[in-house]
Amino acid sequence: NAGVELESARLSASLNLVSKARAVAGCGAIPANQKVDARALVDIAGEVDLFGPLSLFGTVTNLFDKTYNVA
Q: What is the pTM of this model?
């Protein structure tokens, strides 16, 4: 994770690295039909102060629209 805080705004980015895994419990080599591929995902977020105690927050998950299988 990394972030920057400015006078009236904050920006952050996260890198999520996930190694290959199994879709079902087991041990040893992962059969091709049970493998969930490794992936690297980038998320970003930002917040801007509007006025008084109000701010606007936004986030983008999977910034580069990486396709991956899930169990």
A: 0.74
